[in-house]
Structures are given as C-alpha cells and as structure tokens.
Specification:
mainly alpha, transmembrane, transmembrane helix, membrane
Length: about 110
C-alpha cells in the first residue's frame, strides 16, 4: 500500500475518533456531574417549565458547556471534569484538522 494512502486512511480514522471523543467527553462530563455534583446537575437536567426530556437536557448541557463565563470546571474545581472539558473543547479542532489534511492529500494525489 502506498504511504500516502495509509496516511490518508489514518487521518480519516483519526478524524472520526476525535469526533467520537467529543461526544464521549460530553457524556462523561454529564455522568461526573450526576455523581459528584447532584445539585448542579439538577439545575441542568430539570427545566424551568415543561416536562424534562433527553433533548432538552442535552440542549441545556450544551448551553452550560459553551457559555463564556464562568466556565463549568472553574466553578466546580473538579480535576476530572476539567480534563474531560479540555478534551471536549480540543477534539473537534483535531478532527477537522485531520479531515482537512486528508482532503489536502486527496487533492495532491490528483
């Protein structure tokens, strides 16, 4: 197998792995919040009005993770949540970098 083909496949696989890591990090942050910080999780999981649902909880979690100030790990001072939060922030950038590099290799091969 050509080394460019192997690199191309490795970059595509790396991009997929980083996107999976992004969603895994969200799940792990939610799990740690449920276990270690039930009061804060209650704020996220229970809507102000209406019935709770998985989609609403996911949307509220996205809002908490993406809010600019103050950051969730800084508020909770939990090392595990801080690590997963860092992976959550970095993994999409790594994934897109891998995919753009794979697209560049594909373009160069023509």
């Amino acid at each position: 197998m050509n080394s460019f083909v192997a690199l191309y496949l490795l970059l595509l696989t790396g991009g997929i792995a980083c996107f999976v890591l992004y969603y895994l990090a969200q799940y792990r942050i939610a799990q740690l919040l449920r276990q270690r910080h039930p009061q804060q999780w209650k704020i996220i999981a229970e809507p102000d009005q209406g019935r709770p649902s998985a989609v609403r909880t996911w949307m509220r979690m996205q809002h908490v993770l993406r809010s600019s100030q103050p950051r969730l790990p800084e508020l909770l001072r939990d090392d595990a949540i801080t690590r997963w939060f860092g992976l959550w922030r970095v993994s999409p950038w790594l994934a897109w970098g891998c995919w753009f590099a794979a697209m560049f290799l594909q373009w160069k091969a023509r």
